[in-house]
Amino acid sequence: MSASEAARTTIKGATDCHIHIYGPPEKYPLAPTAPYPPPLATVTQYRDVMTRLGLDRVIIVQPAAYGTDNRCTMDAVADLGPDVARAVVVVTPETPRAEIRRLHDLGARSARFFMMKGAVMTWDMLAPVARLIADFGWSVQLQFNGRELPDHEHSIRRLPCAVVFDHIGKFIDPVIPDHPAAKTLFRLLEGGRVWVKASAPYETSREGPPFYEDIEPMATALIRAAPDRVVWATNWPHGGHKMKPDDGSLLGLMRRWCPDLKIQLKILVDNPSRLYEF
User: Fold this and answer.
1) N or C, where is the chain less crowded by C-beta within 10 Å?
2) What is the rounded CA–CA span in Å between residue 110 and residue 44?
3) For residue 89, what are the β-bridge partners?
4) Does this model's pTM top 0.70?
5) What confidence tens digit (pLDDT) does each residue in 5-37 have?
6) Minimal CA–CA distance to 109: which of 47, 165, 61, 142?
């Protein structure tokens, strides 16, 4: 199957589990730590993506551009509505419990730890935040260079909540399944509380489109290892990348990695429904 095949799904409830919304800067000013000037990426524009790909639900992830200001993300969730959208937000150890409750009631279901360029969160914040959100049934969502994973395995195991790894583990440079860092991820998966997003191969691949062959071994191995805890995403609008991947091709790529229709249903519908409480 080519990467562009099956560019539209007909599976009811199909969910895109990682996008960002960027609003007008006069309403949503960038944080001083913003890693780059983001593109304007509105709810209206993303609705067009949903229609084109046949998607019914979406997880809006707080972008690094806004730091700890979750307003743009939560406004987008409100615009799309509770049957369509959930949020991944940024909270800190100092965030009041009442604020977490408010965000939960508005659709937040996960706390983001983006620890690349532009990060506002640090590793020493992870355990305190996990304790804050655990009572609400939230997960923590991690993005960092997966090659560093062995250094953090012990602390991740001790977290009192589910853990979601972005972008096939975000190994920079790509690894094969028997690499020591990859083996760490597979060990964590065995515990039953770790999830992985089958998304954004273009962020780490050195071989590039259409098939990102250097990413495929890890993607397919992760799906085989934990088909009940893999979700899929476009990573729209692909901020920071001059050459934007085609979102339909990314959907087709997931089907190349996982030709089994029953597992596709899990990845697109059942798994997101459990993880984000649709």
Assistant:
1) N
2) 24
3) 111
4) yes
5) 457 888 999 999 999 999 999 999 999 999 999
6) 61
Number of residues in the chain: 278
Q: What number is the average pLDDT over the span 165-174? A: 98
DSSP string, 175-235: --TTSHHHHHHHHHHHTS-EEEEE--GGGT-SS-TTT-TTTHHHHHHHHHH-GGGEEE---
Contact (Cβ atoms closer than 8 angstroms) between residue 138 and residue 88: no
Separation between Cα atoms, residue 35 and residue 32, nearest integer Å: 9
Joined together, the tokens standing for residue 128 give 């305190």
**Which CATH fold would you assign to the domain 15-276?**
TIM Barrel (3.20.20)
Sign of the CA dihedral running 104, 63, 85, 79: positive
What letter represents residue 16's amino acid?
D
Cβ contact 155:122 at 8 Å: no
- Cα of first residue to Cα of last residue in the chain, in angstroms, is 31
In this predicted structure, the answer to whether residue 2 has a pLDDT above a threshold of 60 is no
Q: Which residue has the tokens 């597979």?
A: 186
- Which helix or strand (DSSP H or E) is residue 274 part of? helix 271-276
Spatial distance between the Cα atoms of 262 and 239, rounded to a whole number of angstroms: 32
Locate the domains of the chain by residue range. 15-276
235 is catalytic: yes
Sheet holding 162-165, edge to edge: 15-19, 57-61, 85-89, 108-114, 139-143, 162-165, 194-198, 230-232
C-alpha span between 141 and 139 (Å, rounded): 6
Contact 108, 138 (CB under 8 A): yes
Contact 202, 172 (CB under 8 A): no
Q: In this structure, is the dihedral angle defined by the CA atoms of residues 247, 252, 256 and 261, taken in order, positive or negative? A: positive
